[in-house]
Design goal:
Layout lengths: L1 H35 L6 H20 L21 H10 L9 H30 L4 H12 L1 H8 L4 H25 L3 H16 L6 H24 L1 H11 L2
Keywords: Membrane, Transmembrane, Transmembrane helix
């Protein structure tokens, strides 16, 4: 029995560790290639995330896992209320000026935001949460939030502004927690995908990259949302478990 429990925990954890190592290797490889051959603001991300996106598409399609990892069109009307906090986050972050770009550049930035969103949600929400959910909601949600915010830790290690980076880490961690919580409840990534795309686009096109009051307001709101969703998950824990089991059929 003890060995069975160890196996129950070991397999999902080893799977996530392997995915994370592969993700970091791809990021380092893309950044290295960009530094040698193509310099540019967007090239490191493109060279890393395009291969990751292709791998996800091939895997989800070949293994027929799109619905299993949350890319399904079934969304219950009563679940829509859980997406309202994310809409308010977009409204708060949109309260700034945006750079005026050409039509071609704007189209590129939209595609760029969609690419980032697909990879981040596909890996750190869809795969991570689904893989760890059998170990419990807390383990799945916390792991997802930590991994979702890891880019901030990379920035911190490279010597970026301590205050801005720290705020960015906290914001992304709480946002990752909220996204994971909403996914656990709804088992649907499409609304989260729309949100993440808008979130990435705002961060890319926003002129004011950092505003302590605005970021602080978002962090406070996300913290309250985390608490609210915790009670929702505990209240409907049997519903969440049943939703997960139905999605794996």
């Amino acid at each position: 029995m003890i060995r069975g429990r160890k196996t129950k925990w070991a397999i999902p954890i080893l799977a996530i560790i392997s995915i994370e190592i592969f993700y970091i290797i791809i990021l380092i490889t893309g950044s290295s290639i960009s530094n040698v051959f193509w310099e540019g603001t967007y090239m490191p991300t493109l060279l890393s995330f395009i291969p990751l996106a292709l791998i996800l598409i091939i895997y989800f399609s070949w293994m027929k896992k799109w619905s299993f990892y949350g890319f399904n069109l079934q969304l219950k009307s009563e679940s829509l209320v859980f997406f309202l906090p994310l809409i308010l986050v977009i409204v708060i972050l949109s309260n700034q000026d945006f750079s005026k770009e050409s039509f071609l550049m704007t189209t590129f930035l939209i595609a760029y935001a969609i690419l980032i969103s697909f990879v981040l949600l596909g890996i750190f929400i869809g795969i991570v949460v689904t893989t760890l959910l059998p170990l419990g909601n807390i383990a799945a949600i916390l792991a997802s939030g930590i991994l979702y915010s890891q880019d901030g830790w990379f920035l911190l290690l490279t010597g970026n502004n301590l205050t801005e980076t720290s705020v960015h880490i906290v914001l992304c961690f709480l946002l990752g927690i909220v996204l994971a919580q909403v996914f656990v409840i709804t088992r649907n990534l499409y609304p989260l995908f729309v949100f993440q795309s808008l979130f990435s686009l705002i961060n890319t096109m926003g002129i004011e990259s950092f505003n302590l009051w605005r970021e602080g307001l978002v962090i406070s709101f996300l913290a309250v949302t985390v608490i609210f969703l915790c009670f929702s998950i505990r209240k409907d824990e049997s519903l969440v478990s049943r939703s997960f089991n139905e999605s794996t059929l």
